[in-house]
Design a protein that fits this description.
By secondary structure, the protein is an alpha/beta fold. It has helices spanning about 10-25, 70-80, 95-100, 115, 120, 125-135, 145-155, 200-210, 225-235, 250-260, 275-280, 290-295, 310-325, 325-345, 345-365, and strands at about 1-5, 25-30, 45-50, 85-90, 105-110, 140, 160, 185-190, 215-220, 240-245, 260-265, 285-290, 305. Helix 2 (about 70-80) crosses helix 3 and helix 8 packs across helix 13 (about 310-325).
């Protein structure tokens, strides 16, 4: 098949999809408003071509109305590519441009913020999302709570399928897991953007550090708020306990998680928390905000802890509690977390479902 994605090239999610389907032997094209180099493995059976169309600065927070001005260029490019299927990731911006392109079959994947936050900001966003959902031949997303909101906006339930991206078990697994006896390692792998509310975590860590003498916190990722968070760490006199590692490759990420005692995610919203899935698969004890996406994976007090958004005191308390009872908590959590990942969080299994959907859509077109 010739599959064309309209998606953000620097995104790790976009790259995973493109590489996977190229490895499956398909001819993959990616049209993106931001530039990135995506390297394929040497034994790749398919191809990947990245097409960058500049639309000015693309803001994570939204408001990227300039992308609409690029529709004529994208239509021309799509006529040259002649994809069997067009797949847009993120319903606003990329989804809107895909809907305006006139190409079918069209798959649209909302990622969470586009529906759960942007979709509630104004009637204009809801109108645009309704248009995108109507033009799509198939819709998929990672959480039932996102599906519910899509239907509220106006999506046809018959078009929607639940599709958790999940983790690659060849990379994210607990084999060889070993934690330090001299440091209590807490890891955060979300990017430095407002949606991930990282200040909540740093403030809690500053409190917990008073009772965890061996605390060591690792941040991976990057983003617009990184310098602000580094400044906050200095203000709270906890900077000497924090490591800012930047963006890391998946294999490095998995190795870090296998050394991690506790994984923390305090995001305000998520479609599905793939970072949480990766940490669970690697055997880390997990703490996350009490939002629908995290309740799917964590049962509070069983295989991790859920805390309210911005509840700094409780997060600090849970960190200290876990430090003092780590062996017992981790032993209880691991079989529950592992079973959950094996049941519904495996990337190869879930991508096979997506490939079958592509074939059905392409077969219907022909």
């Amino acid at each position: 098949m010739r599959i064309c994605y309209l998606a953000d090239a620097p995104s790790i999610h976009t790259q995973r999809w493109c590489i996977h389907f190229a490895m499956r032997g398909h001819e993959v094209h990616l049209i993106s408003f931001r530039e990135a180099t995506i390297a394929l493995p040497e034994n790749c059976a398919g191809t990947l071509t990245v097409h960058t169309i500049s639309a000015g600065t693309i803001a994570v927070a939204g408001g990227n109305w300039r992308v609409i001005l690029q529709v004529p260029k994208i239509r021309k490019l799509l006529r040259q590519i002649r994809p069997d299927v067009l797949h847009a990731m993120y319903a606003t911006s990329y989804g809107l441009v895909a809907a305006l392109s006139g190409i079918h079959p069209l798959v649209v994947t909302p990622l969470g913020t586009d529906v759960l936050i942007s979709g509630k900001q104004s009637w204009i966003y809801r109108m645009l999302l309704r248009y995108v959902f109507r033009k799509a031949d198939a819709l998929n997303t990672q959480g039932d709570h996102v599906i519910e909101e899509m239907i509220n906006i106006g999506a046809d339930p018959k078009k929607i399928e639940l599709l958790v991206f999940g983790t690659n078990p060849d990379t994210f697994h607990a084999n060889g897991r070993k934690t330090s006896d001299s440091e209590f390692i807490v890891t955060h792998t979300r990017n430095f953007e407002p949606i991930y509310n990282i200040a909540h975590f740093i403030k809690a860590a500053a409190i917990a550090a008073r009772e965890i003498p061996t605390l060591r916190i690792r941040f991976t990722g990057d983003g617009s708020l990184r310098s602000d968070m580094e400044k906050l760490a200095h203000e709270l006199t906890i900077a000497d306990k924090l490591d800012f590692l930047g963006r890391v490759a998946p294999t490095h990420m998995a190795a870090l998680l296998r050394e991690t005692h506790v994984f923390v995610s305090v995001s305000l919203s998520d479609g599905n928390n793939i970072s949480l899935n990766e940490a669970m698969a690697c055997g880390a004890f997990c703490m996350a905000t009490d939002i629908p996406a995290n309740r799917v994976w964590i049962t509070d007090g069983e295989n991790g802890f859920l805390v309210k958004i911005d509840d700094v005191e409780t997060l600090a308390k849970r960190l200290v509690e876990t430090y003092k009872n780590y062996e017992a908590y981790a032993a209880k959590a691991w079989p529950i977390s592992n079973a959950s990942i094996q049941e519904k969080g495996l990337w190869p299994v879930n991508m096979a479902k997506m490939e079958q959907k592509y074939k059905e859509l392409v077969g219907g077109k022909r």
